[in-house]
Specification:
Blueprint lengths: L10 H32 L4 H8 L9 H11 L4 H15 L7 H5 L7 E7 L10 H8 L3 E5 L2 H13 L3 E5 L2 E5 L3 E6 L3 H5 L5 E8 L4 E8 L4 H10 L4 H23 L5 E6 L7 H7 L3 E2 H5 L7 E2 L4 E2 L2 E5 L3 E8 L10 E7 L3
Parallel strand pairs: 1-2, 7-8
Antiparallel strand pairs: 1-14, 2-4, 3-4, 5-6, 6-7, 8-12, 9-12, 10-11, 13-14
């Protein structure tokens, strides 16, 4: 007597498929948890986590496109761990910043100072665009990196429009208020290790007080990532060496900034997201304006596959941030970070 083929809709077959789905969902949740732990505690401390830090993060969400429909069809109880995975992806992996109550309350308040930081490198060619763009964005102080080629030709036009301009060592300040003092940290030692070394402190006289602005452009991770890309395992030592150099440069830049007296703002292209162990070690004492009063992902630099949040405005004690946004720039691969702040210290 011939044996009838198994019914794909029979109870054992359904249980088997559900079992595989359940295993896949919980395995995916475990992977997401591991990625969160790597990003939040090991990035720029352990080289695989550093790769995750600077790689596209959206691919980690792709399995949801398959697992969620399957859970809806076969086992809706599995939507709970998938929801947890989605929340971890949103807040622990993507770096999404939700609007805080303080942010919402500060939307209508008038700012005392609007601060802008913007890396002008990477494709901007017309210096004549800068002055009218600044008039529209309307900061009182604007810190630029990779800027000398563009700011020097625009200096006369900016001065005619009431701006004070200071350009040196790849660091530029355009201010509505007088620039009283400029002090650049000697970059020679950093240049010997192929770092950036751009750390410049400005003293600006605002109507209410004298404030210190420190403009930084720190070493990039790009050489280490390129070593991994081209030499695979052979590039690990170069990535680790790059991480050590970036840690050293941040330590020196942070120490220089801490020598400032009075109200302090540190801004620029840090070349690292806030999840970096280097960032936490050397820059977490200052409040990050976007983390405090921003909304969304805050990506300030575009790459071929994703955006990263590596440009920051940091506030010393006494400052409160009302709102922060990543604005529309003049082209290139960076976008400006704009923070509206108010002094409440002594």
């Amino acid at each position: 007597m011939p044996i009838a083929p198994a019914n794909p809709r029979s109870a054992p077959a359904v249980r088997a498929r559900t079992g595989w789905l359940r295993a896949g969902v919980w395995f995916y949740l475990a992977v997401v948890l591991a990625v969160v732990v790597a990003l939040q505690w090991q990035a720029d401390a352990w080289w695989p986590a550093t790769l995750i830090l600077f790689s596209p993060r959206w691919p980690w969400a792709m399995p949801l496109l398959i697992l969620v429909p399957l859970a809806l069809l076969r086992a809706r109880r599995l939507l709970w761990p998938l929801t947890l995975a989605a929340m971890l992806l949103l807040f622990g992996v993507s770096g999404f910043v939700p609007p805080s109550m303080a942010t919402l309350a500060g939307r209508s308040e008038a700012a005392e100072l609007r601060v802008l930081t913007y890396n002008l490198g990477g494709g901007i060619e017309d210096p004549a665009m800068i002055a009218p763009w600044l008039d529209v964005v309307a900061p009182q102080v604007a810190l630029f990196q990779e800027c000398a080629v563009l700011l020097e030709p625009a200096r006369k036009t900016l001065a005619e429009r009431g701006w004070h301009v200071e350009v040196q060592q790849g660091s530029c300040l355009v201010s509505r208020y007088p620039i009283r003092r400029v002090e650049a940290r000697d970059p020679t030692a950093i240049w010997k290790t192929y770092g950036s070394g751009v750390v410049v402190r400005y003293e600006v006289q605002t109507p209410g007080r004298s404030i210190n602005l420190v403009n930084v452009h720190l070493m990039t991770v790009r050489p280490g990532l390129n070593a991994i890309r081209h030499r695979r395992w052979g590039g690990i030592s170069e990535l680790e060496s790059n991480t050590e150099q970036r840690d050293l440069e941040s330590m020196l830049a942070s120490a220089f900034a801490q020598q400032s007296n009075g109200p302090l703002i540190v801004a620029g292209d840090f070349n690292m997201p806030v999840e970096s162990a280097i960032y936490r070690r050397h820059w977490s004492p200052w409040a990050n304006a976007f983390s405090c009063a921003g909304y969304g992902l805050g990506s300030s630099k575009a790459t071929s596959w994703h955006g990263v949040r590596i440009d920051h405005v940091l506030l010393g004690p006494g400052w409160s941030c009302l709102r922060t946004q990543v604005g529309t720039g003049l082209g290139g691969d960076h976008r400006p970070v704009i923070a509206d702040i108010r002094w409440g210290g002594r």
